[in-house]
Amino acid sequence: MADFESLNVIVFGISPDSVLSHKKFKQNKGISVRLLSDPDHKVLEMYGAWGVKKMYGKESSGVIRSSVLIDPGGIVRKVWPKAKSSGHAQEVLDMIRQFS
To answer: Which fold has domain 2-84?
Structure first.
């Protein structure tokens, strides 16, 4: 987070979970990322982060883990439609540095 903050980048996470659930998650994991609650998944749908996904051959609707890089002017600069947690933060940071 310090690397993102040093570049004046604001990081948000969003899911349909409740605000209370997010608070507990942040406390349990010791993270400082701002978490937004979208119980009707309207914002998630707008960014293509809600839809049908397959797990173990079964289809269900849910959050599609993804990342969106938005510049200060509100322009989407990069989308990672199926972000993996391992190494992803560094990948996003490297992309941000290309725009800096």
So the answer is: Glutaredoxin (3.40.30)
